[in-house]
Each structure stands twice: as C-alpha cells, then as structure tokens.
Amino acid sequence: MSAFGWLAQPAVLPWAALLVGMCIGSFLNVVIHRLPRMMEREWQAQCAELAGQTPSPQPRYNLMTPRSACPACGRRIAAWHNVPIFSWLSLRGRCAACSARISFQYPLVELLAGLGAAYAAWRFGPGLAALGAALFVWFTLALAFIDQETGYLPDDLTLPLVWIGLIVNLNGAFVPLRDAVIGAAAAYLFLWSINAAFRALRGVDGMGYGDFKLYAAVGAFLGWKLLPLVILLSSLVGLVFGTLQMVSARGGWDWKFKFHFGPYLAFAGIIAMFWGAQIMQRFPALRFAG
Fold it and tell me: Which of 15, 48, 59, 263 is the most buried (most CB within 10 A)?
C-alpha cells in the first residue's frame, strides 16, 4: 500500500472527503462573495473604455487578493478564524474584533460542500466518478448562492463545468460520452427555445443565458435521459419557493419579483446526480420514449 493508500479505504475516504470538502467550502464562500464584484469591476472598466475614458485605477481585487477581512470593521481575519464551521461556532457567529454578525451562509456552504464530497466518496468510491460528483456539487453550490444573491450565473463557473462533465464522461464515469454530448446540447437548446418563445410573445427574456449553460452542464454530467427529471424537479421546487418569495417580498403578491431559476436547477441536478436512477426506476413515465 502506498503512503496515502489508506485514504482510499472505504472507512476512511468519506471522512477525508468531508474534511477536504469543508475546506473547499471555505474557498467557495470567497468565490460567492468576490466573483460577482470582480465581474462588475470588469464591466465598469469595459464601459469606460467604450466611452473613450481611461478607467480609474483600483486596488487589486481577485479571489486571492486582498486577504479576507470583516466587512463591518475592515480587520483582517486571522488564519484560525478561517477553520471551516468550527471557527464560526467558536466565535458564536460574530466578528472577533467588532462583534458584527457573521452570516450563517458561511458555515452552511462549508457544511454542504463537505457533506456533498463525503457522500460522493461513499456513493462512488475512489475514482473519477467521486471526484466528478464532488466538483459538480461544489460548482453548483457556488452558482446557486451567487444566482440567489445577485442574479448572475458567471461563465467563469458554468462553462468550465460543462467541459468537466464531458471530460469525466470520456470513459463513461456517469454516462457514455455520446449521451453526455447530446445531454449538454439538448439541455441548452431546450431552455433557449422556451426563452425564445417567451421573448416572441412578451418582448423580453424570460430567463438568463446562464440558466441555459447551467442546464447544459447538468446534461454534460448526467446525459440526456435524466433531463426530464431535472427540469421537473427544478420547476416544482422553484414553483413552491418562488411563489413564497413573491408573496413575502413586499408583504403581498409581487408580479415584478425577479425569479432566479439557477438555485433550483442546481438543487435538481444534485438530486439527479445521486438518486436520479432510483427515481427514474420508480417513475418510469419520466423517461424519454424509446
């Protein structure tokens, strides 16, 4: 057995994946917070250039720089305060310097990322499928939280996720490569067609192009046969939670409420990733004809 061969043992791998996943979740919190702001800074610079103006110099800002700091007091976060979940619990959800409240989203993302990786390791065992499933969970988690907060589904996440899905299926980790390619294309074209019809009727887009790309990524991982299940699950969950959000947004029914479909696509994709085959066996009517 190699020096790290013990990590692949069935009794160890899920626990190791849990720890790695929680650490990845800590980084995902940085991505969720900073990537939309990086996009907005880039758009502002492009607009200034198009207007013939020289963009004003700004401090360097990316996923690594500057170091994480409290948004309330600006004090840099100590290394031990970045320990996933446990640091939030030890600080009782407040900044160590100014006692400003720290959002519960931070430990939640870390926990979900860890549990997703652990379950992927337990479900698929050591190999490419477990890694692919963990990557799928991590990417879709980040996309879901970003979309819910900002309405963005960044190409920097959706497009790599499509390619990762195709690559892990080169040797059929989840589905044959042919099914993965058809799944990616069919998913994109399905939502694109619905949006085109909506735009023809109403004169505005009914959803963003990021939704098309996220659904294409789901198809690249899971193939075309699970697409009906994913769209059904995402629509049902979106209908329930979207209606609740519309009603509670301003204390009454709000027809102008902006509905973000990405989180529900992400949720449905994760469900289909781990339990789609069992659901399809139980409800064969969800299968495509033939």
Answer: 263
Note the pLDDT tens digit of each residue in 180-226: 999 999 999 999 999 999 888 888 887 889 999 999 999 999 999 99
Q: Which long-range contacts (CB under 8 A, 24 or more apart) does 113-116 make?
A: 113/21, 113/22, 113/24, 113/25, 113/28, 113/137, 113/138, 113/141, 114/17, 114/18, 114/19, 114/20, 114/21, 114/22, 114/25, 114/84, 114/85, 115/18, 115/21, 116/21, 116/141, 116/270
On the 0-12 / 13-18 / 19+ scale of CB atoms within 10 A, 97 is: middle
- For 111-155, what is each residue's pLDDT tens digit? 999 999 999 999 999 999 999 999 999 999 999 999 999 999 999
Task: Determine the structural domain holding residue 119 and report its residue range.
Answer: 1-126
Q: Judge if 12 and 93 occupy the same domain.
A: yes
